[in-house]
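Predict both folds.
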Amino acid sequence: MASGNTRRSGRTRVRTLFLSDIHLGYRHARARELNEFLAGVEAESIVLVGDIVDALSLGRRVFWSAEHTQVVRTLLARGRAGTRLVYIPGNHDESLGVFAEMLQGQFEVHREWVHRTARGERLLVLHGDQFDGSVNCSPWLTRLGDALYELTVRLSDGVNNLRRALGRAYWPLAERLKLSIPTSVRYIESFERVAADHARSQGYDGVVCGHIHRANLRHIEGALYCNTGDWVESCSAVVEAPGGELRLLRWPHAVGSSRRRAAALVADAA
């Protein structure tokens, strides 16, 4: 983890941890890597930015492992220990009304939320599916993209399971393949602009979101765009340091990248 933060009980301490797109219940979610990541970080607040549970995947094929249960147990244990837990449902878990009711009292559940950093910046936090109608993509490309996504995720999952067995570090193969397709890159860039424009138009200093599984942290025309990434492809998260600085972390290296190095972050996140 980043060496600039103070440690207690072997964990890196941060003010806020932002996580999204964990997709518990999806066979190819990297829950084991997330559990290892959570074991090394301690946060005053944990903000879950949608698609934590994949109800759509569970509706097609039931899958749930011990690693998935451990993620939930760890989050609940942090809440009992005093960590503030905020849950913002996404398009894959917004249908879990009963689940959301169960979380009331343990999590704060909001459709959107405003986070104020230690520096006083106001960031709009939402999942990001709200912008789907504003980002142009033809129906046939959407269907093709869905099919290619499933194929690349399965390939990446198999490769990384083998790498793990051989003691090798996680490699975001699916993300690399996605970013090699010009149409995908154009869609991502369009989404980022729409999200940043929305936050700026509403008077916020920036936006924190997930949804598109593309970890990034940069300024777009004066607004801070912050995407936490996911735990299917990139194994990434965003943290706010005690002083208010935002950093993008990737497992297993978990090296913080300051937003002051935003130009380098675009390449690093790829």
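Second protein follows, with its predicted structure tokens after the sequence.
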Amino acid sequence: MKAVAESTTLIPVPVEGTPIGLTQGEAAIRLARDGANALPRQRRRSLISIIVEVMREPMLLLLLAGGGVYLALGDLTEALVLIGLAGFSIAITIIQETRSERAIEALREIASPRALVIRDHVRRRIAGRDVVRGDLLVLSEGDRVAADGWLLADNGLRLDESLLTGESIPVSKVVRVGECHDEPAPRPGGNHLAYIFSGTLVVAGSGLCRVAATGTSSEIGRIGQSLSTLETESPHLRSQTRKLVLAFAIIGGVVSGLAVLLYGLLRGGWLDAALTGVALGMSMLPEEFPVVLAVFMAMGAMRMSRVRVLARRAAAIETLGSATVLCTDKTGTLTENRMTVIQLKLPDGRVLDHDGEAPLPDEFWQLAELGILASAPQPFDPMEVAFHELGRVGDAGTSRRADWNLQHHYPLDPALLAVSQIWCTAPGGDEHVIASKGAPETIAELCGMDPAERAAVAAAVDAMAARGLRVLGVAEARWRGTSFPATQHGFDFTYRGLVGLQDPLRASVPEAVRQCHAAGIHVVMITGDYPETARAIAREAGIPSDTLMSGDQLAQMDDAELARRVCDITIFARVMPEQKLRIVQALKAGRQIVGMTGDGVNDAPSLKAADIGIAMGGRGTDVAREAASIVLLDDDFGSIVTAIRVGRRIYDNLRKAMGFIVAVHLPIAGLAMMPLLFGLPILLAPIHIALLEMIIDPVCSLVFEAEREESNVMRRPPRAPATALLPRALVLWSGVQGAVALAAIGSVVLWSRGAPVVELRAIAFGTLVGAILVLVLVNRAFNPSIAGALLRPNVALAAVVLAIALVLGLVEWIGPVRNLLGFGALQPGQMLVACLAGAAVLVVLETIKWRWRIGWAA
């Protein structure tokens, strides 16, 4: 009963003319008919589907097959070890997958919005997904609007619509005349002044709203549907990895089959032949590829988070190194989003540079005061905050607004870039002052200026904008009466001057832009600011400012013409948020790899269409963050460049790991083949290879991932997207490494072939482990250096070497473990020979690397 009491509040029976909400029964019928007020979710994977996907891993199948062969041979211990390893891997993977699915579902439930509706004359707090068309929403300060609808009652309601419009200035709405129980949303271009959008935030006041659209029918829902038509490109590295594993699996399968056939025909013992085939298949299958890729992507995401960058998709990390164009907005990304009024200019040409401290002369204070009057009394937008701050430090003592009352607000409209507010100058009177501020060209239009006057204003704006200032025009009008015009055009405005606001460039931006240019990345600034302001900021940031395109010019071009010209443009000014998508598509049509920043809902399509969508974590909306592949927690352009540097490092280290994997499997496969070629006993059984995988996997996943970046990581051009993960030169180099290592190991084995089988197997295994460590050292860097290979700091490598030493110590000195693996105790001379073989491999390979300068890292 307590829960019910908290979720429902009785209200008086409405009088005639008061909006009436739905009944619970009507709401249930509409919910069943129209569906939930939510966007479609991706279908959750079942436990069965996860198990089936896990069981498709080839290495698990080979472990199970090896266990089956040992059972057939009657070796229960070996069989249980292999089957236990396979079962453990399967269990861990299934647990991780199911926990991830449950965590995601729980987060969705937590994030589900709530709504206060009137049903059966009672206020009820319900889940946002249960809101239906026709519901009566009660809106209060701090609420997130749950659905689109018509405003029926208004008590000082002000809404932040920045997630849709990109403008952070709170807007007011007008009350819908007449009841509208089932009236649909306004058509595009229709009257939106009485219409409220889902997802907007109530920043002040309260009101009542009749729901007109829910779910995919809402404005956010339509944007979500447009996002669903944009395909998210699949990770290129993942598809490459699958192809590599498939190619190696086919080759390994053919070789294993031939080995089984030859072993059985030449030496008899088909079970031993099957065991040799399983071991050879395991040795040739590079199952580490997908594991290493997954670990590198996860660790890469963690490393990026340390520099205040969240990578939401693995594809973004691998694409960062390919980025050729980086499109960035200005405010808050290149600049600090901290506005300050530093210049005021009167119509007669007089200019005041304000230092932020001295009181303003009377004539300039009147201009500043009009800017304050045109701003929200409780400012939210940085520009309006700057006007109020100017009022606190620059008041000359002539304020006229101490007892004025705000009567009406004309919000910003994409078709009219100005905000006007009506103030009553005396309580109960009909004398009003209208203060307006906005784009200078819009203010000139409202003031009815002739061409000569407009040209003079434009010249003054250009002079201020050339200093990098954001320039606003200010105008004033008078009105008598209590009935106001429908639009701002109904007033007789008088031009009062210009105000220049400065948003300082972030200190890290010039160096970050320089690094982008050095790395072959074309930086493009996209802003809604005046062109000359954009040019000035671009010059300060180091972005070429000689090629600029305005939003009006862009709108007049067809897609083909835009695609021809867009690659040469460095600045887009006076651009609307929805035009970003055209810019992205035009750049991609020119075969560019595009990174795009954005923060609003209208930015979401361009973020998803870009190769790398970058959302602002500080001021960005949830929809933008969901559409993006990368989120900047500090909204700083320098963080993007840092992410590119980290991304290139990750890709380099991934290639080092992949090259090592190819190299290390050759001596393993060679040892598995030596018994057949030289008449030796079986040297490597499946259990030995499983043990080796326990060494190789952490080496690949930890050591190479932790390697520091190459010295030229930001001094080389972006790699082509189609570049092979393992180019021919790198495959050939890996083959040379494997062949040299196999030659050294084979020489040691053949030198020791007279030893007992258990000792021969132990010397082969020990020499192989030493060769694996040498191959790690060789692949740590693309540049040749024996000292660098040995002394280059890497904490992960030290930990792995220590762990391997402990494992070898257990194998050598713990009798039960040694007996389980079929090893014998090694003599000091045999250990010395194994160490010398490893040292010889290191010297030979570093010498070849120094002599063979064909650029396998390119």
